[in-house]
Amino acid sequence: MNWRALDLNLLVVFDAVMHERSATGAAGKLNMTQPAVSHALSRLRGGLKDELFIRTPDGMEPTPTPSGWPTRSVARWSNWPPRRLYGGA
Question: Is residue 86 pLDDT above 50, yes or no?
Answer without folding.
Answer: no
